[in-house]
């Protein structure tokens, strides 16, 4: 025989004369599912880091395309800028997609669309590959750019030491900008470890107050 769900009454704090019947907590439908947030990849610090960084690869890609073949002393500076920019932009896009998928998976509900686990299985290794490539290419870029620092010539295109000032200076400065952004990303990662964002299931819910009046 089916049993009726138990009911309890609680007193509205705004109106002492009003009573309401509400189902107890275990009678309410389970509309949300709590899922771990996925650490740094699911925290707000990831998109902040990526959006701060995205200006660097965009600048590298655009400047590298504009000044192709304008650096005699080191022809590979322009291809370095183009590849660094292209892979950096891809790294940011993949990272943002992963953040949205992890966030969606962390707050499942009947109203929200369910995430596709296959997307994360593909994007995680892609994200790691792009990250390793960006780091390795960044290290290689320092050798490419800094090796000719003392010999580069900005004013006479005929000389074999010539490199367009906008190309070389941009490549030089953006390396130090990358170092600064890496430091900011490390700080944000540390903040996430010390004080991770709160999840939905940590929010306190009001418990009904039983009506003692007869």
From TrEMBL:
Lineage: Eukaryota, Metazoa, Spiralia, Gnathifera, Rotifera
Keywords noted in UniProt: Membrane, Transmembrane, Transmembrane helix
Parts of the chain that traverse the membrane: 44-68, 80-102, 122-146, 167-191
Organism: Adineta steineri
Protein name: Uncharacterized protein
Listed PANTHER family: MARVEL DOMAIN-CONTAINING PROTEIN, SI:DKEY-19B23.12-RELATED
